[in-house]
Specification:
The protein has 402 residues and is of the alpha+beta class. It has three domains: 56 residues; 181 residues, Histidine kinase-like ATPase, C-terminal domain (Heat Shock Protein 90, 2-Layer Sandwich), CATH 3.30.565.10; 139 residues, OB fold (Dihydrolipoamide Acetyltransferase, E2P) (Beta Barrel). The strands form five sheets. It has a five-stranded mixed beta sheet. The protein is globular and about 80 Å long.
Length: 402
């Protein structure tokens, strides 16, 4: 008796392999669709017309477009464990080269991340893991003397926090050497001979090009290029880096990366006739300064502080930061609104004329000469047909503190 033929109308629950280029093309088209819808519903040709139920139809259309954007974004998400597994295999080789016993712990490997991000993460993360194995973890004898288990531990963890993915590489080694890093930083002119920087400021110098405290160059470290590569990659991915270290207890390097590189939830700001877009996650609060809250703290260079509930926050005026000579950013409002941003260098306050909207924008990179525009991620195309400059608040904050 022959076996029964499978039902031709049975649902196919299997997976289908699709080129990532096709998915990227779909995301580009979804972005263009979003812009086209916004341009259509905000067309001046509709001005003055009485259209029954038009607002309800527009709301529904915008909701559908947003769902299509989210669905397209999900198509390009992959588990970060694809990257973590490759790093786990490298740890076996690092054990052989360093003579140390290393326990690699992975947490949150099922966290989803944009494939474009995952493809660029392996090499930078490998540099961090190598530093942990080579510099961070002590030899078995040293660990035993210090009362630690002879086997060192490196933990790779990932978790989604809001619209960001947080990836952490942590070890239980000796921690960063403040003395060595500060000595090398003073030699390179990052700090004065008597300056004693805060830990957060000191740890940032390890990401400078060519910075290394290694006495000798090996195939694992010492060239001063690894952390620079990480910093450059994170800048390209619109991410940021945090470092925390405790002597004798270990070092923790955290990477904060947007879940999607195609669409960005932003607040749209206006200063003069220039529009700016700011990722909503970095906005701490929006405040209206009372008389006397804006303080001039210098003689002549225009440095200001904003007093907010007893705290003093540096003020960054965008027209001065960008050296605006066309007066496009000249304020048109006598009473500015201050937007407070959180950065790794601390909070900064930016005066603007108006908060226009909150919307999900389509990101476009700046290319050619425009790629050199300071403190910008790129441009955001708005439904009105206007273009807003997307501010990189990390670099904006670094420019204010410099």
């Amino acid at each position: 008796m022959s076996a029964p033929l499978p039902e031709t109308n049975a649902p196919d629950a299997g997976l289908m392999r699709v080129s990532s280029d096709k998915i990227s093309r779909l995301m580009d088209l979804v972005g263009e669709l979003s812009l086209s819808v916004s341009e259509t519903v905000q067309s001046p040709d509709l001005s003055g017309l009485v259209l029954t139920n038009f607002d309800a139809a527009v709301h529904r259309l915008n909701m559908i477009v947003r769902e299509v954007q989210d669905a397209a974004t999900e198509l390009r998400l992959v588990p970060v464990d694809d990257v973590f597994r490759r790093l786990r295999r490298m740890v076996r080789e690092l054990e052989r080269q360093t003579g140390k016993s290393i326990d690699m712990v992975i947490v949150g490997g099922d966290t989803a991340i944009d494939k474009l991000v995952a493809d660029k993460l392996y090499d930078p993360l490998l540099h961090v893991v190598r530093n942990s194995a080579d510099h961070g973890l002590e030899s078995p004898a040293e660990r035993e003397t210090a009362g630690k288990p002879t086997q060192g531990r490196i933990t790779l963890s990932a978790a989604q926090v809001g619209s960001e993915v947080q990836i952490v590489v942590a070890d239980d080694g000796r921690g960063l050497s403040r003395e060595k890093i500060l000595r090398k930083a003073r030699e390179k002119g990052f700090f004065g001979p008597d300056e004693e920087p805060e830990p957060s400021a000191l740890w940032r110098v390890i990401f400078e090009p060519g910075f290394s405290t290694a006495e000798t160059v090996s195939n694992l470290s010492g060239r001063g290029v690894g952390m620079d590569v990480l910093n450059s990659t994170m800048t390209a991915l619109r991410g940021r880096i945090g470092v925390d270290s405790t002597a004798g207890q270990g070092t923790r390097v955290s990477l904060h990366i947007p879940v999607s590189l195609a669409f960005l939830d932003c607040i749209i700001l206006r200063l003069g006739v220039q529009l700016f877009a700011v990722p909503i996650d970095v906005v701490s609060e929006i405040a209206k300064p009372a008389p006397g809250d804006l303080l001039d703290i210098s003689a002549g260079d225009g440095s200001e502080m904003f007093r907010l509930r007893g705290n003093y926050i540096p003020v960054c005026r965008l027209d001065r930061f960008y050296g605006d000579t066309s007066n496009a950013m000249r304020s048109t409002h006598p009473d500015p609104v201050l937007v407070v941003f959180n950065t790794s260098n601390g909070s900064i306050a930016v005066p603007v004329d108006e908060i226009l909207d909150r919307q999900q924008v389509v990101m476009k990179p700046l290319i050619g000469r425009l790629a050199k525009v300071r403190a910008s991620w790129g441009c955001a195309l708005l439904g009105t047909g206007e273009v807003a400059l997307v501010l990189d608040c990390e670099r904006l904050g670094a420019g204010v503190s410099a």
